[in-house]
Design brief:
This protein has 415 residues and is α+β, with helices and mostly antiparallel strands. Helix content is 53%, strand content 11%. The chain has 22 helices and ten strands. Strands 6-9-5-10 form a four-stranded antiparallel beta sheet, with helices on both faces. A two-stranded antiparallel sheet has the order 1-2. A hairpin with a 2-residue loop joins β3 and β4. It starts with a strand and ends with a helix.
């Protein structure tokens, strides 16, 4: 048995198949993949990795299995899946996932090719575990797959607490010990036991507060959009494929971006935290439905149109259209009066959070600092935005003055 000190769960005991999986290359690679990607440009202490998160998920899965009374081979399968659930992540976690999927058809939980006939697969087979079955659990298949990937999964329980801890933001605090203890199965579905509506609501509240504060912070979104665009240019070069990027770690990707002429400008900006600025920030109702649903090709065409109208290089424009607001946690199921009910159908809090989520949604257009004004005006025209409801950046020079000097200047201006 190996005991590991963890910043969130204190001591984590790892044994069995999980202990043998720890020192495999794909698991150790997760030490070099940031849990929150570019969020560390906002919160400097958010340097935690997918490796420690995977240990946390393993730990909570182990606790949940004990509480559910699951043992033997089935429990070993789930423990292996919990530890391995993130080995499919590309560099910077979710930041380039959609780009990789567009080229490979694979998301981070599509890991069959990483488990079958590989170093990891050999360890699984040594423990009489079928790699394909473990891949299925990671994808959320079957009754026990819900523990690893579902609406009440231990993945979500760990990352909310861990991300809050490392960013210093208090909103992700949840009672994960009670959540794990109160899980049960009803008709094959993983649900929270009787009397736990508020426990389930705490997941929704934590996610709703962490999203605008951490996951969708404006600086994090801008840096993510820039990284995604640079990686797209990298993949377009003859020597680097999406498959090779998928298996890189954060350091590999940044190094490749630095050494490639088409992407070295971004790498320099990233190193200096010299990010694009917002030219347009539009709310949900002010963004045409056709734009909210635009595919990648359409977005690129719109960027080119904005660049031409604003007389800037197309590489200096990024149109950032988030996915439609969604709340997967609202489909969590809770026992109420002996019946299984969806949280979204029972909790009035869900309706309020859905409204807040839509109000927090923003479409953005980003560009270099000295072009924000003309790019903003061009974007409003090209995208057909309602200027009354759209926030266009107003770039001002900083003012350095004492309070007396400021009041004197203001009085003069009013005269």
């Amino acid at each position: 048995m190996t005991t590991i000190k963890d910043s969130v769960h204190d001591h984590i005991s790892v044994d069995g198949v999980a202990e043998d999986l720890l020192d495999t290359g794909p698991v150790q690679r997760l030490r070099r993949v940031a849990q929150l990607g570019t969020v560390k440009l906002v919160y400097p202490s958010a340097n935690h990795t997918r490796f420690e998160h995977s240990l946390g998920v393993y730990h909570l899965a182990d606790r949940a299995l004990d509480s559910l009374g699951v043992g033997g081979v089935e429990a070993e399968r789930v423990r292996a899946a919990a530890l391995l659930h993130d080995i499919g992540h590309a560099p910077f976690s979710h930041n380039v996932e959609e780009l990789i999927h567009r080229h490979t058809g694979l998301y981070h939980d599509d890991v069959t090719d990483l488990l079958v006939d590989t170093e990891v697969g050999e360890v699984l087979l040594d423990h009489d575990l079928d790699p394909e079955r473990i891949a299925g659990l990671i994808a959320g298949e079957g009754q026990y797959g819900q523990l690893v990937s579902g609406e009440l999964d231990v993945d979500r329980m760990d990352y909310l607490v861990r991300d809050a801890h490392h960013t210093g933001v208090p909103y992700g605090t949840i009672d994960h010990e009670r959540l794990v203890r109160e899980l049960t199965f009803a008709d094959g579905d993983l649900v929270l036991d009787e009397g736990n509506v508020q426990t389930a609501e705490s997941l929704l509240m934590a996610r709703a507060l962490m999203t605008p504060t951490v996951y969708a912070h404006p600086v994090a979104r801008i840096s993510k959009a820039m990284l995604r665009r640079a990686t797209e240019r990298l993949i377009a070069t003859p020597d680097i494929s999406a498959d090779s990027v998928r298996r890189m770690d954060d350091y590999d990707l940044i190094s490749a971006l630095r050494m490639t002429p088409e992407t070295e400008t971004f790498a320099d900006r990233y190193d200096r935290r010299d990010l694009f600025k917002r030219a347009v920030w539009a709310e949900y109702d002010d963004t045409p439905a056709a734009l909210r649903e635009a595919d990648h090709g359409t977005v690129r065409e719109l960027e080119a149109d904005i660049a031409e109208r604003a007389a800037v290089d197309a590489s200096e424009i990024v149109l950032d259209v988030p996915a439609e607001p969604s709340m997967a946690e609202s489909t969590s199921e809770v026992l109420v009066g002996g019946e299984v009910r969806r949280l979204g159908d029972h909790s009035p809090l869900v309706t309020a959070l859905r409204t807040a989520q839509e109000q927090q949604w923003r479409m953005g257009v980003y560009t270099v600092a000295d072009a924000t004004d003309r790019v903003g005006k061009a974007a409003v025209d090209v995208l057909g935005l309602d200027i009354e409801g759209t926030l266009v950046s107003d770039v001002r020079q900083r003012v350095h003055a004492t309070l007396d000097e400021f009041e004197t200047d203001a009085a003069g201006a009013s005269e």
